[in-house]
Amino acid sequence: MSLRYLFNTSGDYVAFVQGDYVFSPETDWLGFIVNGNEVYATNGDFMGYLLSDDRIASRINEPRRLRLLPPLRPLRPLRPLRPLRRLRMLQLPYPYKDVFEKQ
Question: CB-based contacts of 28: which residues, under 8 Å, 6+ apart?
Answer without folding.
Answer: none
